[in-house]
Amino acid sequence: MSSKEAYFGGGCFWGMEYFFSKLDGVEDVVSGYMGGNSVNPTYKDVCYNNTGHIEVVKIVYNPKIITYSDLAKYFFEIHDPTQINGQGPDIGHQYISVVFTSDEQEKKIINKLIKELKNNGFEVATKIFDLMPFYKAEDYHQNYYNKNGHIPYCHKYTKRF
């Protein structure tokens, strides 16, 4: 089986990229934009021109090593899925908690995990959308923390499952 892709947004894509890139079976993580109403948006467009895009990461993974379910669980543990309209100090539509699913199986997995979180007392704000076009962010956003020697300021791992 060849590589597969998954798309998650949970605040600034820098932190999401940082955490997902450390997982065994993840071959690549690309920061980008999804969900808006224009083609090839720039960071400036997304932040200041109300394009409706959301900062997301595209995860290319080997399903023989890591499953979509494992990625999804991790997604819910590296950001706060209960925060509405942002993540940590990053506030705005472009920072919402969101999953873009490519098929019914992915949607079923996400809904099951959200139900489990809600049953454990979490008021999950994560939105689920069908797959939309992905636009790669500018090069200076790619591998940001690794290139700059920093660590994420609004993401951290918190065991929830």
Structural account:
The protein is of the alpha+beta class and 161 residues long. The protein has a single domain (4-148), classed as 2-Layer Sandwich (Peptide Methionine Sulfoxide Reductase, Chain A). The protein is built from 5 helices and 8 strands; from the N terminus they run βαβαβαβββαββα. It has helices spanning 13-20, 43-48, 68-77, 104-119, 144-148; strands at residues 4-10, 26-34, 54-61, 86-87, 90-91, 97-101, 127-130, 134-136. The chain has a 6-stranded mixed sheet, covered by helices on one side. 37% of the residues are buried.
User: Spans with pLDDT under 50 lasting ≥5 residues?
Assistant: none
Number of helices: 5
Annotation, overall tally of beta strands: 8
CATH domain topology: Peptide Methionine Sulfoxide Reductase, Chain A
Radius of gyration: 15 Å
User: What is the CATH homologous superfamily assignment?
Assistant: Peptide methionine sulphoxide reductase MsrA
What is the CATH top level name? Alpha Beta
Question: How are the elements arranged and paired?
Answer:
Blueprint: E1 4-10, H1 13-20, E2 26-34, H2 43-48, E3 54-61, H3 68-77, E4 86-87, E5 90-91, E6 97-101, H4 104-119, E7 127-130, E8 134-136, H5 144-148
Offer a concise description of the structure.
This protein is α+β, with helices and mostly antiparallel strands.
